[in-house]
What we know:
By secondary structure, this protein is mostly helical. The protein contains 21 helices and two strands. It has helices at 12-21, 25-38, 47-54, 61-75, 90-96, 103-118, 122-125, 134-143, 160-180, 186-201, 207-230, 234-250, 254-270, 274-287, 293-309, 313-330, 344-357, 361-372, 379-395, 399-412, 419-429, and strands at 152-153, 204-205. The chain has a two-stranded antiparallel ribbon. The longest helix is centred in the middle third of the chain and has 24 residues, at 207-230. The radius of gyration is 23 Å and the shape is globular.
Amino acid sequence: MSPGSVKAERNEELLRHLETLGWSISGFARRIAARCEAVRLPYSVVTSTVSRWCKGATPGDDLAAAACHVLSAALHRAVTPESLGWPSDTGLVAAQSLEYLHVSHSVRMLSRLWALDAMRRRTVVKSAFSPSVFGPASREALVMPADVDISGHGQHKVTAVDIDLLDEQTRLYGKLDSQHGGGKFRSVFASMMDTHATPMLNGAFSARTGRRLYGSVVDASLAMASMAYDDQLPGLAQRYDLQAMRLAQAIGDRARITRVHIHQARLAAAQKGQDDVLAHARSAVLAAEGAPLLVRAYACVTEARAWALNGQPDQVVAAVKRARELFARAQSGPSPAWLEWFDLRELEGQAAWAFAVAGLAEQGVQALKKASAFSSDRTRDTVELMITEAELARLRGDSATHAAVAKRASQAAQHLMSRRLSERLDHLNAGKPLHGF
């Protein structure tokens, strides 16, 4: 049925929602028009528009999404197009969000992904991981210059306070993610991004403000990608990563482009694509040239993990050495705020994992001792460290320690909503070698 066509009966579900809210048809139309203006949709929504919907007409995908956003926000629960008898656009968004195009496309795709993720729309959330799409995007991000014009020309004027709020929310949800797992608060974070970040991206801002705004949105989107990865939704994580990288490319931010490549290495490892893991890790190292030293250290320890998965212990040792040297030098220089969590505990914990996977038990034990000397309130990271400790015990043939540490790890992870970690613990308790990145 084409947009605007009329069905035989009234849309009783839509009318029930309006009655519940006490809204008139004209009031609903005004709210949808305001949403369209905020996200720069070129549609006029008037009373007669909504009246036709109530009588059975079907809106187009964009207007349906705007109407559902308004209803969901007011009713404090998800209202989907399908529930109103309107066609779903999730398949279209799932396909389009794998395209690497211009900035306006990325803005639109991120906005739609946030809206769908907030409503837990499983069709797009469960969309398959597609390893072939990242290579061309990676090459463009690595070789193309920053965009010439990144200013915004919408109605809403974006201020520094708006961006500060976005940064604070990203830090908050990042902390909650590390304490409770990626399956706990992602939809809430997505709802916040849909409500606050979408109008900002479609607002008015200078090139200077745009550079900061895009960087903040990249950080938030990559945080959500990490949550999706932890929730074993690689297709959703990949889509967040891909569109975030286009914004990072737009502002010429090599450090954030590095971060996306590291994310893709993790996703490839989850799909058992060892060659792709190494390609993404090496691309991260290349992207990090000229970036802050701490970013380069993060890329190098990721490379070490990739070499470990590919059975190259000599390369693991060399990459860990480079990572440690860069980390030591980075302590006297500036580092990006989004990498503030990457401390000595994290560096040595990742190095210990790489050594364990490479079969280098003694080096792994030494790295683990360095990591364990520091405390952390990041519950999931602590459990990850225990998993590495148990694996090192298995390599040394110490079954008693392996069993004891595996038990402690399972107990520590009881309240975490992390499908990825649950699977790793299952493998650990079954005595299987590490494979998760």
